[in-house]
C-alpha cells in the first residue's frame, strides 16, 4: 500500500513541478507562478508590506473593532490561528531542508521572499473578508472558495465561480492533511527518546488533535492563542542559545548566507538553485498565495476587510522573515546542515551543540508546532469539505473522522515523499487563488487604500470620531 502511494506521489510531483528553459536556466513554472504576483502586488499596492505594518499592529490590538461586528474571533486570535498553521515545522524542518538542498544561499532568498510574501498575504486576506459569508446565526464561512464563488457571482459569472471555488476546495482537502507535521515531529521524538513505533505515535497525535477539531472553532481559538506564543518562545529560546555561545561566528555565517545566494555554490545548482529551493520553502513556511490562512482570518471580528488584511501582513514577517531567518543563521553557525542527516535531524544536531539535553527542548517545540498546525489545518479542511458537501452535521462529522484517521500515515512515509505530496497540493491550490487575486486586484487596492485613508483621518480627529471609521 505504501509503495503504491509513493508511486502516485512521484507522478503527481513530476507533473506539478514541470520545468521550463528560460535564458539557459531550468526553472519550475510554479516558482514563477508564485514569485510574479508577490512582486506585482508589492508594487501595485505601493509597498504596503513596509508602510502598512504600523496599521497592522494597531488593528491587531482591536482598536477599530467591537463585539457587534461580524466574526467569531478577535483579530489576535485569528492571527494566532493562522500562525499556528504557518509557524510550524516549515520553520524548523523546512529551513533545515532548504539549507541541505539549496545551501546557505537558500536562507537568504527565504528572507527576501518573506518580505514580498507579506504583500500577497495582505491582498488575499483582504479579498477573503470582502467576500466571506456571514450566516444569520453568526457563523462565518470564508476562504478562497467563497472568494471565487461570491466574487465572480458579483461580476455575473456565478456558475464559473461556483465551479472554480469547488476546484480550490477539492485541492485544499489534500493540502489540509499536513503529513510533514506528523512525520517530522515523530522523527525528533524518536531521535531523542528511541521510540520506534511511528503508527502508535501517529495515533496519539491524531487523538490529541481530534479533541480540538471535534470541539470546533471556539476550542481552536483558545488553544492556538496559548500554544502559538509558547511554542515560539521555546524554539527561539534554543535558537538564541546557539547564537549566544557562537556569537563571534554570527557575522561570518550571515556573510556566507548572503554570498552563497549569488556565487553559484548552492547544492541545488547554483544561485538559481538556491532561489528555487528558498522559494519553495518560503511558500511552505508563509503559505502566501496558497490561500489557506484566509480561512482563519475570515473568522476575525471586523467589518473592514483591509483591517484584517493588514493584520495578516504581519504573519509572513513573524514566521518567515524572523523565525526562519534566525533558525537558518543558527544552523549555519553550528554547521550541521553539512553531512548525512536531513530534515529535523539537522536542527536537532544544531541544538545539541549547546547541551546534550537541548534536543529534548526541540522535541517539545516540535510537538507543539506539529500539534497546533494540525489543529488549524483540521479547521481549514473542514471549511473546504463543507463547501463541497454542505454544512450538515453528518458532513461535518464525516470530515472530522476522515481527517483524524489520515494523520498517522504521515509518521510512516519517507520524508522526501511527504515533501513532494505537500508541495504538490500547495502549489495546485495556488493556481485558482492567484487567478482570483489578479481578477480582483483593483478591488483589493481600493479596500486597502480606503481603509488607510480612514485611519489617517481618525488619527487627526478626536477619539469620538473613530466610530466613523468602522
From TrEMBL:
It is found in: Cell inner membrane; Cell membrane. This is Alanine/glycine:cation symporter family protein. It comes from the Bacteria. Keywords: Cell inner membrane, Cell membrane, Membrane, Symport, Transmembrane, Transmembrane helix, Transport. It comes from Parasphingorhabdus litoris. It is a multi-pass membrane protein. Coiled coil: none annotated. InterPro entries: Na/Ala_symport. The chain crosses the membrane at residues 30-50, 76-100, 106-123, 157-180, 200-220, 227-247, 253-277, 317-338, 358-380, 401-419, 425-441. Belongs to the alanine or glycine:cation symporter (AGCS) (TC 2.A.25) family. Pfam families: Na_Ala_symp (PF01235). The lineage of its organism: Bacteria, Pseudomonadati, Pseudomonadota, Alphaproteobacteria, Sphingomonadales.
Amino acid at each position: 500500500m505504501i509503495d503504491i502511494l509513493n508511486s502516485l506521489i512521484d507522478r503527481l510531483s513530476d507533473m506539478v513541478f514541470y520545468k521550463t528553459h528560460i535564458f539557459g536556466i531550468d526553472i519550475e513554472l510554479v516558482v514563477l507562478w508564485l514569485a510574479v504576483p508577490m512582486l506585482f502586488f508589492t508594487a501595485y499596492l505601493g509597498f504596503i508590506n513596509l508602510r502598512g505594518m504600523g496599521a497592522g499592529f494597531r488593528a491587531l490590538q482591536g482598536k477599530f473593532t467591537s463585539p457587534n461586528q461580524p466574526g467569531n474571533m478577535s483579530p489576535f486570535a485569528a492571527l494566532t490561528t493562522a500562525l499556528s498553521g504557518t509557524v510550524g515545522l516549515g520553520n524548523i524542518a523546512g529551513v533545515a531542508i532548504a539549507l541541505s538542498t539549496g545551501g546557505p544561499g537558500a536562507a537568504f532568498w527565504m528572507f527576501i521572499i518573506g518580505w514580498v510574501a507579506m504583500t500577497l498575504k495582505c491582498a488575499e486576506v483582504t479579498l477573503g473578508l470582502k467576500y466571506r459569508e456571514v450566516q444569520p446565526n453568526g457563523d462565518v464561512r470564508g476562504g478562497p472558495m467563497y472568494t471565487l464563488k461570491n466574487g465572480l457571482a458579483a461580476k455575473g459569472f456565478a456558475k464559473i465561480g461556483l465551479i472554480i471555488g469547488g476546484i480550490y476546495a477539492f485541492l485544499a482537502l489534500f493540502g489540509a492533511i499536513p503529513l510533514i507535521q506528523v512525520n517530522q515531529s515523530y522523527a525528533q521524538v524518536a531521535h531523542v527518546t528511541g521510540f520506534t513505533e511511528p503508527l502508535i505515535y501517529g495515533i496519539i497525535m491524531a487523538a490529541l488533535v481530534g479533541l480540538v477539531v471535534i470541539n470546533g472553532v471556539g476550542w481552536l481559538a483558545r488553544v492556538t492563542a496559548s500554544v502559538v506564543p509558547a511554542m515560539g518562545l521555546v524554539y527561539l529560546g534554543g535558537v538564541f542559545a546557539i547564537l549566544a555561545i557562537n556569537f563571534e561566528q554570527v557575522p561570518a555565517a550571515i556573510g556566507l548566507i548572503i554570498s552563497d545566494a549569488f556565487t553559484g555554490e548552492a547544492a541545488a545548482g547554483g544561485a538559481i538553485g538556491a532561489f528555487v529551493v528558498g522559494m519553495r520553502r518560503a511558500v511552505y513556511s508563509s503559505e502566501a498565495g496558497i490561500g489557506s490562512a484566509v480561512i482563519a482570518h475570515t473568522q476575525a471580528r471586523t467589518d473592514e476587510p483591509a483591517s484584517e488584511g493588514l493584520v495578516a501582513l504581519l504573519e509572513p514577517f513573524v514566521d518567515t522573515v524572523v523565525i526562519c531567518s534566525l533558525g537558518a543563521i543558527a544552523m549555519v553557525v553550528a554547521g550541521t546542515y553539512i553531512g548525512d542527516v536531513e530534515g529535523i535531524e539537522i536542527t536537532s544536531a544544531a541544538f545539541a551543540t549547546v547541551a546534550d539535553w537541548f534536543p529534548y527542548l526541540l522535541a517539545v517545540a516540535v510537538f507543539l508546532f506539529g500539534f497546533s498546525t494540525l489543529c488549524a489545518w483540521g479547521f481549514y479542511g473542514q471549511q473546504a469539505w463543507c463547501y463541497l458537501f454542505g454544512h450538515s452535521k453528518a458532513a461535518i462529522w464525516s470530515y472530522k473522522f476522515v481527517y483524524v484517521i489520515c494523520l498517522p500515515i504521515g509518521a510512516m512515509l519517507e520524508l522526501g515523499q511527504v515533501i513532494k505530496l505537500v508541495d504538490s497540493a500547495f502549489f495546485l491550490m495556488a493556481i485558482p487563488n492567484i487567478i482570483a487575486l489578479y481578477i480582483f486586484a483593483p478591488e483589493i487596492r481600493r479596500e486597502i487604500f480606503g481603509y488607510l485613508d480612514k485611519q489617517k483621518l481618525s488619527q487627526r480627529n478626536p477619539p469620538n470620531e473613530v466610530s466613523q471609521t468602522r
